[in-house]
Design brief:
The chain has 11 helices and 18 strands. By secondary structure, the chain is α/β, with parallel strands linked by helices. The protein binds zinc ion (2 copies).
Length: about 450
Amino acid sequence: MELGSTVRAVRSRRVLVGSEVRPAVIVIKDGKIHSILSDCNFSGHAAYEVLDVGDSVVMPGIVDCHVHVNEPGRTTWEGFWTATQAAAAGGVTTIVDMPLNSIPPTTTLDNFHEKMREAAGKCFVDTAFWGGVIPGNQLELRPMIQAGVAGFKCFLIHSGVEEFPHVTDCDLHTAMKQLQGTGSVLLFHAERDVHQTTEETGDPSQYSTFLQSRPDVMEIEAIRIVTDLCLQYQVRCHIVHLSSAKPLQLIEEARQAGAPLTVETTHHYLSLAAENIPAGATQFKCCPPIRGHANREQLWSALKAGQIDMVVSDHSPCTPDLKKLDSGDFTEAWGGISSLQFGLPLFWSSASKRGFKLLDVVRLLSQKTAQLCSLDNQKGSLAPGYDADLVIWDPEREFEVKQGSIHHKNKLTPYLGLTLQGVVCATVLRGRLVYRDGSFSPEPLGKHLLIPVRHNIKV
Ligand SMILES: [Zn+2]
Ligand SMILES: [Zn+2]
């Protein structure tokens, strides 16, 4: 079957249907799942070509709702063409682009339109967009919701780029009033400057120096603000990239008190540990920081207990010079880790050892992430009526992460040389074969996903 062609049916001995893995044939019509037949009921061979994948697992495509594509404006860092090819190669069928690090940032209706124009014709997988909340842009929020953003992100601390300033408490109240009743969601980079923050005085090439400069208390203090706001306004709130396990209790208490609050963590916090980061290895730098081994295990427990809702990549690349690899200075290096292509195998390599099942992978990497951006009526599930977005992969097979097989624009990643478990063989996007064994559809087949307004809102 040729890349880019329409797949009418996929057969496998291991299809994730409902809560079980069993032989099945997925029949696809007009880009959507038409029906799922048990293998013995299937007799459509004559009518159409069947993609028979044998023992490979067929699951809903991954929905990665935290990706920094950086286009327009910082296209030397990443771009829609390369990011979405990397996504397709990793079994990711939907990405949601973050509003910052592109120039302009997605903080006004005009900027959102510019973003969509720039992304047009460059996406190999489907793409939705987050808007941003910055000081003074409150009147842009409702128009952006009407135009189809998935929700908004804000920072409670310096974002790293000048054109996306962080918000004050006062800005937050203003924004919350705009979001109330819209059904939209506000995402928080939950770190806040605290008085105890120690100056970076140690050796800047030691990871511990950087780690000490961003202690757990910065996340705790930020999350206290989020839970208060969430309870007060009853606007959906979401904590992105939780790194510390310490605020989990605070989050749990707020939820029990009725806060519509969700929380994600990332592959790097679940896969890596501070103790193992070599001196000068700034490809490991991100904010909030990767913490210690014990903290990592607490994140896994929280994931198992349902206290953390979903897992994303927070793919955030830059050019190699900004990583300051020559000096290995953690304090000067750009913070951000590239991993979009490797999310599924990274997660599975660690999760399978901890008793997680394929069903958990679908819930944490596809369903919950689709839900967060109100895409759960078309993405993230294998059921009739849903988009025929499929990842076809071998969870038992291993591979080594090699430079030559990385499709991100910049190849620097902390996972280089690592052996991971789970090989993505093919990716199907709305019934079209967009990736198979290292090659892509000849043309980008992804589309923009605009989130319909579900509430009557005044602009
Ligand atoms: Zn962030
Ligand atoms: Zn991010």
